[in-house]
Amino acid sequence: MQTATLHFVDKTPLVALIGNPNCGKTAIFNALTGSHQKVANYAGVTVERKEGKIALGESGKTLRVLDLPGAYSLYPRSLDERVTHDVLKGLAAGEKRPDLAVCVVDATNLRRTLKLALAVQRLGVPCVLALNMNDLAQKRGLQIEAQALSKALGMPVIPTVGIQSQGVALLKAHLVQAFASPGALPATPPPLPQGDALESHDAQRIQHLLHDLGLDHIQPDALSEQIDRWVLHPVWGPMLLALVLFVVFQAVFDLAIAPMDLIKSTSLAMGDFLGGMIDNPLLKSLVVDGLMAGVGGVLVFLPQILILFFFILVLEESGYLPRAAYLLDKLMGSVGLSGRSFIPLLSSFACAIPGIMAARTIANTRDRWVTIMIAPLMTCSARLPVYTLLIAAFIPDTLVAGALSLRGLVLFALYLMGIAGAMAVAWVLKRFTREGGLARPLMMELPSYHWPTLQNVAIGLWQRAKIFLSRVGGVILILTLILWFLASFPRPDAGFEGQPIEVSFAGILGHALAHVFAPIGFNWQISIALIPGMAAREVVVSALSTVYALSSQTADTAKTLGPIIAQSWSLASALSLMVWFVFAPQCLSTIATVKRETNGWRMPLMMLSYLFLLAYAASFITYRLAVFLGLG
Amino acid sequence: MNSFPSLARLPKHEKAWVKALRPLESQSLLARQLEEIGFVPGEQVQVLSKALMGGDPMVVRVGQSTFALRQAEAQLVEVSPEP
Question: pTM (2 decimals)?
Answer without folding.
Answer: 0.76
